[in-house]
Design brief:
single chain, 81 residues, alpha+beta, three-stranded antiparallel beta sheet, two-stranded antiparallel sheet, 32% helix, globular
Length: 81
């Protein structure tokens, strides 16, 4: 199995939508909006999007997260990878 390719879509609004393999609709979102300012917390660019995705993956599945390996297995087993 793998590599798993996640589609990320962001149009500059509050959420980056993540669509996992074999899913038709987004199954996860990353909130990047600062509601007090009424704007995104990151610039609307490919590189900023990539940085947010890298950070999300590291926080969700990385070694610093004691549940990282469990989270990865759960995503795969439940089809939410």
């Amino acid at each position: 199995m793998g590599p798993y390719i996640v589609q990320a879509e962001w149009w500059g609004g509050p959420y980056i939508e993540l669509t996992m393999p074999e899913a038709l609709e987004p199954t996860e979102v990353i909130n990047v909006w600062v509601y007090a300012k009424g704007e995104a917390s990151v610039p609307f660019s490919y590189w900023a999007l990539q940085d947010v995705l890298d950070e999300w993956c590291d926080e969700t599945f990385g070694e610093a997260n004691p549940d990282g390996a469990y989270n990865m297995r759960a995503y795969i087993e439940n089809g939410c990878y």
